[in-house]
Amino acid sequence: MLSPLMNTIKIILTVLIILIFGCDDAVDKPKEKDQTVIGRDSWKIVQEDIFASNCVDCHTVGTSFANQSDLLLTSDVAYDQLMNHPVNNQSALDNNLERLGTEGLSSLYKSFLWEKINAPDKEHFYGEHPHYGSLMPLGMPYLTNGQLEFIRQWIVAGAPETGVVADSSLFDDTTRFVEVEFAPLTPPENGIQVHVGPFEVQPHYEREFLNFVNIDTLDEVYIKQYEISMRSGSHHFILYTFTNVVPPMLVPDPGEYRDYRDANGNYLINNLAITSYHVYFAGTQWPYMNYHFPPGVALKVDINNGLDQNSHYINRTDEVQIGEVYTNIYFADPSEVEHEAQVMFINKTDFELPPHEITTLEHTISVGERIHIFQLFSHAHEHLLEFSVEIVGGDRDGELVYFAYDWEHPPILDLDPPITLEAGEGLKLNATYDNWTDKTLRFGLLGEDEMMILFGYYYTD
Questions:
Q1: Lowest CB count within 10 Å: 261, 309, 440, 453, which one?
Q2: What is the pTM of this model?
Protein backbone atom coordinates (compact mmCIF):
# COMPACT_ATOMS: atom_id res chain seq x y z
CA MET A 1 0.00 0.00 0.00
CA LEU A 2 1.13 3.55 -0.68
CA SER A 3 1.94 5.83 2.21
CA PRO A 4 -0.24 8.90 2.81
CA LEU A 5 2.59 11.03 1.42
CA MET A 6 2.83 8.99 -1.76
CA ASN A 7 -0.95 9.14 -2.16
CA THR A 8 -0.82 12.89 -1.82
CA ILE A 9 1.98 13.15 -4.38
CA LYS A 10 0.05 10.87 -6.79
CA ILE A 11 -3.08 13.01 -6.46
CA ILE A 12 -1.09 16.21 -7.07
CA LEU A 13 0.61 14.73 -10.15
CA THR A 14 -2.75 13.49 -11.52
CA VAL A 15 -4.27 16.94 -11.08
CA LEU A 16 -1.29 18.56 -12.82
CA ILE A 17 -1.53 16.11 -15.74
CA ILE A 18 -5.24 16.81 -16.11
CA LEU A 19 -4.68 20.58 -15.97
CA ILE A 20 -1.86 20.47 -18.50
CA PHE A 21 -2.99 17.75 -20.89
CA GLY A 22 -6.62 17.07 -19.93
CA CYS A 23 -7.96 13.68 -18.99
CA ASP A 24 -8.63 11.00 -21.59
CA ASP A 25 -12.26 12.08 -21.89
CA ALA A 26 -11.28 15.74 -22.19
CA VAL A 27 -8.85 14.89 -24.97
CA ASP A 28 -11.16 12.53 -26.86
CA LYS A 29 -14.42 14.48 -26.72
CA PRO A 30 -13.29 17.43 -28.85
CA LYS A 31 -12.05 14.94 -31.43
CA GLU A 32 -15.38 13.15 -31.35
CA LYS A 33 -17.17 16.46 -31.73
CA ASP A 34 -15.07 17.43 -34.76
CA GLN A 35 -15.66 14.05 -36.35
CA THR A 36 -19.38 14.37 -35.65
CA VAL A 37 -19.58 17.76 -37.35
CA ILE A 38 -17.56 16.66 -40.36
CA GLY A 39 -18.99 13.18 -40.75
CA ARG A 40 -22.56 13.55 -39.54
CA ASP A 41 -25.14 11.90 -41.75
CA SER A 42 -26.75 14.42 -44.07
CA TRP A 43 -30.20 13.38 -42.84
CA LYS A 44 -29.14 14.10 -39.24
CA ILE A 45 -28.05 17.56 -40.30
CA VAL A 46 -31.41 18.13 -41.99
CA GLN A 47 -33.24 16.95 -38.87
CA GLU A 48 -31.07 18.53 -36.17
CA ASP A 49 -29.92 21.75 -37.83
CA ILE A 50 -32.96 22.64 -39.97
CA PHE A 51 -36.13 20.86 -38.90
CA ALA A 52 -35.47 21.08 -35.14
CA SER A 53 -35.32 24.88 -35.13
CA ASN A 54 -37.80 25.64 -37.91
CA CYS A 55 -40.40 22.88 -38.09
CA VAL A 56 -40.65 20.70 -35.00
CA ASP A 57 -42.52 23.18 -32.79
CA CYS A 58 -45.52 22.88 -35.12
CA HIS A 59 -45.04 19.31 -36.34
CA THR A 60 -45.04 17.58 -32.98
CA VAL A 61 -47.57 15.33 -31.25
CA GLY A 62 -50.75 17.09 -30.19
CA THR A 63 -50.45 20.31 -32.20
CA SER A 64 -53.20 21.38 -34.56
CA PHE A 65 -50.65 21.77 -37.36
CA ALA A 66 -49.46 18.19 -36.96
CA ASN A 67 -53.03 16.93 -36.86
CA GLN A 68 -54.01 18.91 -39.95
CA SER A 69 -50.98 17.82 -42.00
CA ASP A 70 -50.69 14.35 -40.40
CA LEU A 71 -46.95 15.00 -40.33
CA LEU A 72 -44.60 14.71 -37.36
CA LEU A 73 -41.02 15.92 -37.70
CA THR A 74 -39.59 15.04 -34.30
CA SER A 75 -36.35 13.13 -34.54
CA ASP A 76 -37.81 9.76 -33.49
CA VAL A 77 -40.27 9.49 -36.39
CA ALA A 78 -39.46 12.19 -38.98
CA TYR A 79 -37.68 10.03 -41.55
CA ASP A 80 -40.36 7.34 -41.48
CA GLN A 81 -43.08 9.99 -41.68
CA LEU A 82 -41.54 11.55 -44.78
CA MET A 83 -40.75 8.32 -46.57
CA ASN A 84 -43.58 5.97 -45.74
CA HIS A 85 -46.70 8.10 -45.38
CA PRO A 86 -48.83 9.63 -48.14
CA VAL A 87 -49.31 13.36 -48.57
CA ASN A 88 -52.29 14.59 -46.55
CA ASN A 89 -53.39 17.10 -49.18
CA GLN A 90 -55.89 16.04 -51.83
CA SER A 91 -54.68 18.50 -54.46
CA ALA A 92 -51.09 17.29 -54.09
CA LEU A 93 -52.26 13.67 -54.19
CA ASP A 94 -54.17 14.39 -57.38
CA ASN A 95 -50.91 15.69 -58.84
CA ASN A 96 -49.12 12.45 -57.83
CA LEU A 97 -46.85 14.13 -55.29
CA GLU A 98 -45.22 12.25 -52.44
CA ARG A 99 -43.75 13.63 -49.28
CA LEU A 100 -40.30 12.44 -50.25
CA GLY A 101 -38.81 9.82 -52.54
CA THR A 102 -35.50 8.10 -53.12
CA GLU A 103 -35.30 8.37 -56.91
CA GLY A 104 -32.94 11.34 -56.91
CA LEU A 105 -33.58 14.23 -59.27
CA SER A 106 -37.03 13.06 -60.34
CA SER A 107 -38.07 12.79 -56.68
CA LEU A 108 -37.15 16.43 -56.14
CA TYR A 109 -39.96 17.57 -58.42
CA LYS A 110 -42.44 15.03 -57.05
CA SER A 111 -41.74 16.03 -53.44
CA PHE A 112 -44.46 17.86 -51.53
CA LEU A 113 -41.82 18.67 -48.91
CA TRP A 114 -39.75 20.48 -51.53
CA GLU A 115 -42.81 22.30 -52.89
CA LYS A 116 -43.64 23.54 -49.38
CA ILE A 117 -40.20 24.91 -48.49
CA ASN A 118 -38.88 26.12 -51.85
CA ALA A 119 -39.54 29.84 -51.34
CA PRO A 120 -37.72 31.04 -54.50
CA ASP A 121 -40.48 29.28 -56.49
CA LYS A 122 -43.20 31.16 -54.59
CA GLU A 123 -45.00 32.52 -57.65
CA HIS A 124 -45.37 29.03 -59.08
CA PHE A 125 -46.47 27.62 -55.71
CA TYR A 126 -49.30 30.07 -55.13
CA GLY A 127 -50.13 30.70 -58.78
CA GLU A 128 -50.37 27.11 -59.94
CA HIS A 129 -51.24 25.29 -56.72
CA PRO A 130 -53.67 27.42 -54.72
CA HIS A 131 -54.82 24.40 -52.68
CA TYR A 132 -51.38 23.29 -51.49
CA GLY A 133 -51.64 25.46 -48.38
CA SER A 134 -48.89 27.83 -47.27
CA LEU A 135 -45.17 27.90 -47.80
CA MET A 136 -43.23 26.71 -44.76
CA PRO A 137 -42.08 27.40 -42.15
CA LEU A 138 -45.31 29.19 -41.28
CA GLY A 139 -44.95 32.53 -39.54
CA MET A 140 -41.16 32.38 -39.61
CA PRO A 141 -38.47 33.51 -42.05
CA TYR A 142 -38.01 31.28 -45.08
CA LEU A 143 -35.19 28.76 -44.89
CA THR A 144 -31.86 30.21 -45.95
CA ASN A 145 -30.64 29.59 -49.46
CA GLY A 146 -27.86 27.48 -47.97
CA GLN A 147 -30.32 25.30 -46.05
CA LEU A 148 -32.46 24.86 -49.14
CA GLU A 149 -29.48 23.89 -51.28
CA PHE A 150 -28.36 21.37 -48.63
CA ILE A 151 -31.81 19.73 -48.64
CA ARG A 152 -31.88 19.83 -52.45
CA GLN A 153 -28.52 18.06 -52.68
CA TRP A 154 -29.66 15.48 -50.15
CA ILE A 155 -32.88 14.73 -52.08
CA VAL A 156 -31.06 14.57 -55.43
CA ALA A 157 -28.65 12.06 -53.85
CA GLY A 158 -31.61 9.82 -52.99
CA ALA A 159 -32.50 11.23 -49.53
CA PRO A 160 -30.62 8.46 -47.66
CA GLU A 161 -31.06 8.03 -43.91
CA THR A 162 -27.33 7.46 -43.45
CA GLY A 163 -24.27 8.73 -45.23
CA VAL A 164 -22.79 12.09 -46.13
CA VAL A 165 -24.19 13.23 -49.49
CA ALA A 166 -24.46 17.03 -49.13
CA ASP A 167 -21.90 19.73 -48.42
CA SER A 168 -22.34 21.24 -44.94
CA SER A 169 -20.37 24.35 -45.99
CA LEU A 170 -23.56 25.37 -47.81
CA PHE A 171 -24.83 26.63 -44.45
CA ASP A 172 -22.39 29.53 -44.84
CA ASP A 173 -24.91 31.04 -47.25
CA THR A 174 -27.37 32.69 -44.86
CA THR A 175 -29.21 34.76 -47.46
CA ARG A 176 -32.93 34.21 -47.89
CA PHE A 177 -35.41 34.55 -50.70
CA VAL A 178 -36.66 38.11 -51.07
CA GLU A 179 -39.60 38.77 -53.32
CA VAL A 180 -38.69 40.87 -56.33
CA GLU A 181 -41.57 43.08 -57.40
CA PHE A 182 -41.55 44.15 -61.02
CA ALA A 183 -39.58 47.35 -61.40
CA PRO A 184 -37.35 48.98 -64.01
CA LEU A 185 -33.81 47.66 -63.83
CA THR A 186 -30.88 49.98 -63.24
CA PRO A 187 -28.88 50.05 -66.51
CA PRO A 188 -25.48 48.35 -66.28
CA GLU A 189 -22.30 50.43 -66.28
CA ASN A 190 -20.60 48.12 -68.76
CA GLY A 191 -23.38 46.82 -70.96
CA ILE A 192 -26.72 47.76 -72.45
CA GLN A 193 -30.37 47.82 -71.44
CA VAL A 194 -33.33 47.05 -73.70
CA HIS A 195 -36.97 47.57 -72.82
CA VAL A 196 -40.33 46.69 -74.32
CA GLY A 197 -43.74 47.94 -73.18
CA PRO A 198 -45.95 48.65 -71.43
CA PHE A 199 -48.30 46.87 -73.85
CA GLU A 200 -51.79 45.41 -73.60
CA VAL A 201 -52.85 41.77 -73.70
CA GLN A 202 -56.55 41.36 -74.32
CA PRO A 203 -58.74 39.09 -72.12
CA HIS A 204 -58.64 35.37 -72.97
CA TYR A 205 -55.94 35.96 -75.56
CA GLU A 206 -52.33 34.97 -76.13
CA ARG A 207 -50.19 37.78 -77.46
CA GLU A 208 -46.78 37.02 -78.94
CA PHE A 209 -44.78 39.57 -80.88
CA LEU A 210 -41.33 40.77 -81.90
CA ASN A 211 -39.86 44.18 -81.13
CA PHE A 212 -36.63 45.29 -82.81
CA VAL A 213 -33.95 47.37 -81.09
CA ASN A 214 -31.00 49.04 -82.83
CA ILE A 215 -27.73 48.66 -80.91
CA ASP A 216 -25.00 51.29 -81.15
CA THR A 217 -21.92 49.34 -80.07
CA LEU A 218 -19.14 47.10 -81.35
CA ASP A 219 -19.88 44.32 -83.83
CA GLU A 220 -19.17 41.54 -81.34
CA VAL A 221 -19.29 41.54 -77.56
CA TYR A 222 -18.72 38.98 -74.84
CA ILE A 223 -21.64 38.62 -72.44
CA LYS A 224 -21.02 37.45 -68.88
CA GLN A 225 -24.46 38.10 -67.35
CA TYR A 226 -28.02 38.98 -68.28
CA GLU A 227 -30.86 40.15 -66.06
CA ILE A 228 -34.54 40.07 -67.05
CA SER A 229 -37.53 41.51 -65.18
CA MET A 230 -41.08 40.98 -66.48
CA ARG A 231 -44.55 41.93 -65.38
CA SER A 232 -46.57 38.89 -64.32
CA GLY A 233 -48.40 36.86 -66.95
CA SER A 234 -45.48 36.22 -69.28
CA HIS A 235 -45.08 32.76 -70.82
CA HIS A 236 -41.59 33.48 -72.11
CA PHE A 237 -39.18 36.17 -73.19
CA ILE A 238 -36.38 35.53 -75.71
CA LEU A 239 -33.59 37.65 -77.15
CA TYR A 240 -32.47 37.01 -80.71
CA THR A 241 -29.72 38.34 -82.90
CA PHE A 242 -29.70 37.82 -86.67
CA THR A 243 -27.75 35.90 -89.24
CA ASN A 244 -25.78 38.02 -91.68
CA VAL A 245 -28.04 37.20 -94.63
CA VAL A 246 -31.34 38.84 -93.69
CA PRO A 247 -33.16 39.99 -96.86
CA PRO A 248 -33.54 43.80 -96.86
CA MET A 249 -37.33 43.50 -97.16
CA LEU A 250 -37.46 41.68 -93.83
CA VAL A 251 -35.31 44.12 -91.85
CA PRO A 252 -37.72 45.38 -89.14
CA ASP A 253 -38.40 48.94 -88.06
CA PRO A 254 -37.17 49.79 -84.54
CA GLY A 255 -39.84 49.85 -81.86
CA GLU A 256 -42.62 48.34 -83.98
CA TYR A 257 -44.79 45.65 -82.37
CA ARG A 258 -44.82 42.84 -84.95
CA ASP A 259 -47.53 40.53 -83.63
CA TYR A 260 -47.55 36.87 -84.57
CA ARG A 261 -51.37 36.89 -84.85
CA ASP A 262 -54.09 39.41 -85.55
CA ALA A 263 -57.03 40.16 -83.25
CA ASN A 264 -58.95 37.20 -84.69
CA GLY A 265 -56.10 34.76 -84.04
CA ASN A 266 -54.89 34.46 -87.64
CA TYR A 267 -51.13 34.19 -88.08
CA LEU A 268 -49.39 37.13 -89.76
CA ILE A 269 -46.97 35.38 -92.11
CA ASN A 270 -45.04 38.55 -92.97
CA ASN A 271 -44.16 39.04 -89.31
CA LEU A 272 -43.19 35.39 -88.85
CA ALA A 273 -40.87 35.27 -91.88
CA ILE A 274 -37.97 36.87 -89.98
CA THR A 275 -37.84 33.97 -87.50
CA SER A 276 -35.93 31.91 -90.07
CA TYR A 277 -33.03 34.34 -89.60
CA HIS A 278 -33.07 34.51 -85.81
CA VAL A 279 -30.17 33.38 -83.62
CA TYR A 280 -31.19 32.63 -80.03
CA PHE A 281 -28.83 33.68 -77.27
CA ALA A 282 -30.83 34.31 -74.06
CA GLY A 283 -34.28 33.90 -72.56
CA THR A 284 -36.37 32.84 -69.59
CA GLN A 285 -39.81 31.83 -68.40
CA TRP A 286 -39.22 33.20 -64.90
CA PRO A 287 -40.66 36.62 -63.93
CA TYR A 288 -37.19 37.64 -62.76
CA MET A 289 -33.88 36.13 -63.70
CA ASN A 290 -30.32 37.23 -63.08
CA TYR A 291 -28.04 34.74 -64.80
CA HIS A 292 -24.25 34.80 -64.44
CA PHE A 293 -22.10 32.67 -66.70
CA PRO A 294 -19.49 30.66 -64.76
CA PRO A 295 -16.18 32.42 -64.01
CA GLY A 296 -14.04 32.59 -67.13
CA VAL A 297 -16.95 31.72 -69.43
CA ALA A 298 -18.75 34.22 -71.66
CA LEU A 299 -21.01 34.17 -74.71
CA LYS A 300 -19.79 35.99 -77.84
CA VAL A 301 -22.69 37.73 -79.58
CA ASP A 302 -22.75 39.83 -82.74
CA ILE A 303 -25.24 42.60 -81.96
CA ASN A 304 -24.23 44.94 -84.75
CA ASN A 305 -27.49 44.12 -86.57
CA GLY A 306 -29.56 44.82 -83.47
CA LEU A 307 -31.71 42.61 -81.25
CA ASP A 308 -35.19 41.20 -81.67
CA GLN A 309 -37.17 40.93 -78.45
CA ASN A 310 -39.73 38.10 -78.42
CA SER A 311 -42.41 38.40 -75.74
CA HIS A 312 -45.27 35.94 -75.22
CA TYR A 313 -48.03 36.67 -72.69
CA ILE A 314 -51.01 34.43 -71.93
CA ASN A 315 -54.03 36.24 -70.48
CA ARG A 316 -56.78 33.90 -69.30
CA THR A 317 -58.56 36.50 -67.19
CA ASP A 318 -61.57 38.66 -67.97
CA GLU A 319 -59.55 41.87 -67.90
CA VAL A 320 -56.90 43.52 -70.05
CA GLN A 321 -53.43 42.60 -68.80
CA ILE A 322 -50.38 44.85 -69.01
CA GLY A 323 -47.06 43.38 -70.07
CA GLU A 324 -43.59 44.89 -69.87
CA VAL A 325 -40.01 43.61 -69.91
CA TYR A 326 -36.63 45.10 -68.98
CA THR A 327 -33.36 43.37 -69.90
CA ASN A 328 -29.82 44.18 -68.85
CA ILE A 329 -26.91 42.69 -70.79
CA TYR A 330 -23.53 42.84 -69.03
CA PHE A 331 -20.32 42.78 -71.07
CA ALA A 332 -17.23 40.78 -70.12
CA ASP A 333 -13.63 41.85 -70.54
CA PRO A 334 -12.40 39.67 -73.46
CA SER A 335 -9.04 39.20 -71.73
CA GLU A 336 -10.80 37.36 -68.88
CA VAL A 337 -12.61 34.89 -71.13
CA GLU A 338 -11.14 31.37 -70.94
CA HIS A 339 -14.05 29.49 -72.52
CA GLU A 340 -16.43 30.78 -75.16
CA ALA A 341 -19.98 29.62 -74.40
CA GLN A 342 -22.07 28.01 -77.10
CA VAL A 343 -25.86 27.85 -77.24
CA MET A 344 -27.59 24.48 -77.01
CA PHE A 345 -30.96 24.38 -78.78
CA ILE A 346 -32.55 20.96 -79.30
CA ASN A 347 -35.99 21.13 -80.91
CA LYS A 348 -38.27 18.25 -81.93
CA THR A 349 -41.04 19.43 -84.24
CA ASP A 350 -42.19 16.28 -86.06
CA PHE A 351 -44.71 14.77 -83.68
CA GLU A 352 -48.42 14.19 -83.19
CA LEU A 353 -50.31 13.81 -79.91
CA PRO A 354 -53.55 11.87 -80.44
CA PRO A 355 -56.69 13.19 -78.70
CA HIS A 356 -57.58 11.85 -75.26
CA GLU A 357 -54.31 9.98 -74.94
CA ILE A 358 -51.14 10.24 -72.87
CA THR A 359 -48.14 10.12 -75.22
CA THR A 360 -44.42 9.96 -74.50
CA LEU A 361 -41.98 11.31 -77.08
CA GLU A 362 -38.26 10.57 -77.31
CA HIS A 363 -35.57 12.51 -79.12
CA THR A 364 -31.86 11.61 -79.07
CA ILE A 365 -28.92 13.69 -80.27
CA SER A 366 -25.20 12.93 -80.30
CA VAL A 367 -22.23 15.29 -80.25
CA GLY A 368 -19.36 15.36 -82.69
CA GLU A 369 -16.72 16.55 -80.24
CA ARG A 370 -16.02 16.74 -76.52
CA ILE A 371 -18.32 19.32 -74.89
CA HIS A 372 -18.96 20.57 -71.35
CA ILE A 373 -22.62 21.43 -70.59
CA PHE A 374 -23.11 23.91 -67.76
CA GLN A 375 -26.80 24.84 -68.07
CA LEU A 376 -30.03 23.08 -69.11
CA PHE A 377 -33.72 24.01 -69.12
CA SER A 378 -36.76 22.70 -70.94
CA HIS A 379 -39.59 24.37 -72.83
CA ALA A 380 -43.03 22.92 -73.48
CA HIS A 381 -46.69 23.92 -73.24
CA GLU A 382 -49.72 23.23 -71.09
CA HIS A 383 -50.22 19.53 -71.92
CA LEU A 384 -46.80 18.53 -70.58
CA LEU A 385 -46.75 16.06 -67.69
CA GLU A 386 -43.01 15.57 -67.38
CA PHE A 387 -39.80 16.32 -69.25
CA SER A 388 -36.54 14.45 -68.60
CA VAL A 389 -33.06 14.29 -70.06
CA GLU A 390 -30.58 11.44 -69.71
CA ILE A 391 -27.07 10.78 -70.97
CA VAL A 392 -26.61 8.39 -73.87
CA GLY A 393 -23.35 6.42 -74.19
CA GLY A 394 -20.16 6.33 -72.18
CA ASP A 395 -19.74 5.50 -68.50
CA ARG A 396 -22.83 7.52 -67.52
CA ASP A 397 -25.19 5.95 -70.06
CA GLY A 398 -28.79 6.21 -68.86
CA GLU A 399 -28.03 8.70 -66.07
CA LEU A 400 -30.86 11.18 -65.44
CA VAL A 401 -29.49 14.73 -65.54
CA TYR A 402 -32.61 16.92 -65.84
CA PHE A 403 -36.25 16.65 -64.81
CA ALA A 404 -39.23 19.02 -64.97
CA TYR A 405 -42.92 18.82 -64.19
CA ASP A 406 -43.67 22.53 -64.49
CA TRP A 407 -44.26 23.76 -68.05
CA GLU A 408 -44.77 27.40 -67.06
CA HIS A 409 -41.66 27.87 -64.91
CA PRO A 410 -39.36 24.93 -65.69
CA PRO A 411 -36.29 24.59 -63.49
CA ILE A 412 -33.06 26.10 -64.79
CA LEU A 413 -30.32 23.61 -63.94
CA ASP A 414 -26.84 25.05 -63.43
CA LEU A 415 -24.20 22.32 -63.58
CA ASP A 416 -21.01 22.71 -61.57
CA PRO A 417 -18.99 20.76 -62.51
CA PRO A 418 -20.33 20.65 -66.06
CA ILE A 419 -21.56 17.47 -67.74
CA THR A 420 -18.83 16.32 -70.11
CA LEU A 421 -19.89 14.42 -73.23
CA GLU A 422 -17.30 12.75 -75.42
CA ALA A 423 -17.63 12.61 -79.20
CA GLY A 424 -20.32 10.06 -80.07
CA GLU A 425 -22.14 10.41 -76.75
CA GLY A 426 -25.31 12.45 -76.43
CA LEU A 427 -28.56 13.28 -74.70
CA LYS A 428 -31.98 11.65 -74.86
CA LEU A 429 -35.03 13.84 -74.29
CA ASN A 430 -38.21 12.23 -72.96
CA ALA A 431 -41.44 14.21 -72.73
CA THR A 432 -44.87 12.96 -71.71
CA TYR A 433 -48.04 14.85 -72.65
CA ASP A 434 -51.71 14.52 -71.78
CA ASN A 435 -53.84 15.58 -74.74
CA TRP A 436 -57.24 15.97 -73.11
CA THR A 437 -58.68 17.73 -76.18
CA ASP A 438 -60.72 16.40 -79.10
CA LYS A 439 -58.05 17.22 -81.68
CA THR A 440 -54.59 15.96 -82.58
CA LEU A 441 -51.90 18.28 -81.22
CA ARG A 442 -48.74 19.14 -83.10
CA PHE A 443 -45.83 21.54 -82.75
CA GLY A 444 -47.19 25.07 -82.47
CA LEU A 445 -46.72 28.50 -80.96
CA LEU A 446 -49.79 28.72 -78.74
CA GLY A 447 -49.97 27.44 -75.19
CA GLU A 448 -52.65 25.01 -76.34
CA ASP A 449 -50.27 23.60 -78.98
CA GLU A 450 -47.14 21.75 -77.92
CA MET A 451 -43.36 21.97 -78.03
CA MET A 452 -40.41 19.81 -77.03
CA ILE A 453 -37.32 21.99 -76.68
CA LEU A 454 -34.16 21.80 -74.59
CA PHE A 455 -32.10 24.95 -74.12
CA GLY A 456 -28.69 25.19 -72.56
CA TYR A 457 -25.12 26.39 -72.74
CA TYR A 458 -21.86 24.50 -73.14
CA TYR A 459 -18.25 25.06 -74.13
CA THR A 460 -15.66 22.95 -75.92
CA ASP A 461 -12.02 22.27 -75.23
A1: 440
A2: 0.70
